[in-house]
Amino acid sequence: MRISFVHSGPFVDWCRVYMLDIKFIKENKNIVKAGAAKKLVEVDIDRLIELDDKRLELMKESEALRAEQNAMNDQIASATPENRGAMIDDMRAVKEKFQVKEDELKEVMREWQDLMVRVPNVPDITVPEGASDEENVEVRAWGEKTAFDFTPKDHIELLELHDMADFERGVKVSGFRGYFMKNEGAQLFFALWQYFYNYFIQQGYTPMIVPSLVRKESFYGTGFLPQSEEDLYKVGENEYLAGTAEVATMGYYMDEVLEKKDLPKKFIAFSPCFRAEAGKHGKDVKGIIRVHEFFKIEQVILCEANHQTSVDLHEDITKHVEHLMQTLKLPYHVVVNCGGDLGLGQVKKYDIEAWMPSQQKYRETHSSSYFHDFQTRRLNIRYKDDDGKLKYVHSLNNTACATSRLPAAILENYQNADGSITIPEVLRPYFGKDTITRS
Questions:
Q1: Whole-angstrom Cα distance, residue 74 to residue 68?
Q2: DSSP character for 336?
């Protein structure tokens, strides 16, 4: 459903957005309310429905007045001079009524649009209740938690010990959370990118390098606006820096109709990523776990509008990452995210978390989600089904390789008593040697 923006305000700089279907919202009001409550999203669904009824009523009245104006214009064109003056006065009165209705419609649309973009997608029934990531539920674990017969160093100590990173100069040049990766630290990043890229290309994914400077349409389309604006860097009137390659990749087919025979479309997309980490200034302030600028390879899939297909592909994109974690021999577990830890558009989400010996806990390295048509309805990405009917495709995404979190996990799990670091066997062809030792 295409919605044209008609007002001044936070959305006026772009002309349209696609949202959770208002027909679905009205027909499933209680389900939508329950979904918002589960996600801890505050949005007045009753007010939205009231506004939609008013919107439709005003649109009908406006169209009737417009039709009346058009008919009067035709009559005036063929009227005699002595009748034309009175008819113009009558048309002026109709025009004034029309303008009043249009102004009223603009006010209603302003509030209606604001509510519409805040309505969250309905989470899957299997999503557990909960308010934060602390209430996510483990579904499986792999590998024995790494244990040492010595006191393990954290990734910061290891990076500095081997001159693989420079945090002091990083802050000098880039500010808070700034860093330089160098020597074997930079090599480890490149080795991971090459290893992960080669794997996904072999699985039939299309490799892409995508923009990180992206117009706001794609941020609204993917659900990062308005919910997560505080974590975005705005760099222009209509542009932001993306925190994931998902944003640009999803915008790739915006306003296009795909061929069903070409589905699913699978992309493995690389980009620099930027996150303000608003509200997290006291968390992971050192090291490379939580930084403002990093690099990420992302799985993005567009598939036919079928729930079971989305569910199956969600399991597949998660298994791809689990397979790679297992080849790296990194202990990890998979958690299903609770309602309060889901984004606006996510139907269901898994986090894959690697074991960090220095912290004696798992830390998130990957995030796997499916959205049904929440994103594609906003971005107007459709396909023609076998019956000739246009449908919105479904979308999914999952981190493939987030650098710098994954390197941090490798360094900590592969350290040795003498401070050296063994390189995972599968990375050695890309890294060029087996061990990192002190210079």
A1: 10
A2: E
Residue 92 has pLDDT above 70, yes or no: yes
Q: How far apart are CA 216 and CA 131, in angstroms?
A: 28
Residues 6+ apart with CB under 8 A from 240: 213, 214, 216, 219, 225, 232, 233, 234
CA distances from 75 to 66, 72, 92 (A): 14, 5, 14
> What 8-state DSSP symbol labels residue 393?
P
Reduce the DSSP state of residue 142 to 3 states and report it. strand
Residues catalogued as catalytic: 275, 290, 364, 367, 405
Whether pLDDT at 6 is above 60: no
Cα separation, 433 vs 172, in Å, equals: 32
CB-based contacts of 14-19 (< 8 A; 24+ apart in sequence) = 14/215, 14/216, 14/217, 14/220, 14/238, 17/113, 17/116, 17/117, 17/217, 17/220, 17/221, 17/378, 18/221, 18/376, 18/377, 18/378, 18/379, 18/380, 19/116, 19/117, 19/119, 19/377, 19/378
The helix/strand/coil state of 303 is strand
Report yes or no: 19 and 2 within 8 Å, Cβ to Cβ. no
CA distance 239 to 256: 22
The conformation of residue 427, written as its DSSP 8-state character, comes to G
CB atoms within 10 A of CB 323: 12
- pLDDT 10s digits, 356-386: 999 999 999 999 999 999 999 999 999 999 9
Short-list 410, 393, 391, CA closest to 401: 410
3-state secondary structure of 66: helix
Measure the CA–CA gap between 116 and 45, rounded to whole angstroms: 9
Q: Identify whether 226 is preceded by a cis peptide bond (ω within 30 of 0).
A: yes
- Sequence-distant (6+) residues with CB within 8 A of 423 are 188, 191, 414, 431, 433, 434, 435, 436
Pairing of strands 265-274, 206-209: parallel
**423: amino acid identity, one letter:** I
pLDDT at 138 > cutoff 60: yes
How many Å apart are CA 58 and CA 64, to the nearest integer? 10
Helices (H) and strands (E) in the chain, counts: 13, 20
Query: Cα 270 from chain centroid?
Result: 15
Compute and round to an integer the Cα radius of gyration of the chain. Answer: 27
Helix (H, G, I), strand (E, B), or coil: what is residue 99? helix
- Alpha-carbon distance of 179 to 291, in angstroms, equals 8
Residue 403 to residue 188: CA distance in whole angstroms: 9
